[in-house]
Amino acid sequence: MKATVKKTISLPRELAREVEETARSEGKTISAVIEDALRKKRTASLKADLKALQAYGSRKAKEKGIFTETDLRRYLAK
To answer: Taking the complete model, does pTM exceed 0.85, yes or no?
Structure first.
């Protein structure tokens, strides 16, 4: 069994209704719906961070004239 921590949260009325409806329609608890949403948010955030890091690396490589794997091997052999 997972270790859990109980928390009390406040939600705007409309969002609370939406969470309850989602829980009913998916056959989940409210906690499970919120946990899923938080996990999806974390995943999206990590993907965005990775994309930004890849873009940074790509920019730096281009600044050094590295466009292909062959260019990279040549650069690293220096």
So the answer is: no
